[in-house]
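In this section we walk through a basic example: taking a raw amino acid sequence and producing a predicted 3D structure, encoded as discrete structure tokens. The instruction is simple. Fold the sequence below.
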Amino acid sequence: MKPGRIVVISGPSGVGKSTVVKQLLNQSPVPLVLSVSSTTRQPRPGETDGVDYIFLTDERFAENRDHGEFLECKEVFGRGYWYGTAKTTVTTGVSEGKWVLLEIDVEGALAVQKDGHFPLMIFLHPGSMEVLEDRLRNRNSDSEESIRRRLEVARNEISKSHLYDHVIENKTVGETVWQICQILADADKDGDAHA
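The resulting token sequence is shown next.
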């Protein structure tokens, strides 16, 4: 059986990653599965443990981190909540021939690369900082301080988008998903899957 591959999708907060990923999982031309991240934050209404996130206590997360069980992990947006990708989830999926999708930030993506993996790296670009700011404000879910912090992080992430294999401007979800499907199909055809 041909091994699968790690696929990384990154992009600034508010660019539409979750919406794109949800549709991509239904339309992918390869056996794509989403890696469920672990987090120390509390579940939001409607979230299910093991489906949306693996919810861990601070102590358990720290224990897993100290034992090297995460492919990448970090504290996000300075809120005191940690997020991480379990190594076993990814390596098991890839060895079973699945293409394991990681929806992670730039720092996490670069950590995965440094760990000796060869992920297919895709960056979703908002088009401009103005477009991104409009999206963040229209969500009506963040404080002014939070929006400013997210935009600052976004500038830094966008400045590193050249480190990715593909940069896609997320104009419409349908178009973006179609472009990613083409990238996945081409990578599968080339047979350049790496574990």
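Looking at the output, two observations stand out. The two ends are 13 Å apart (CA to CA). The chain has one domain: 5-190. In the next section we compare this with other chains.
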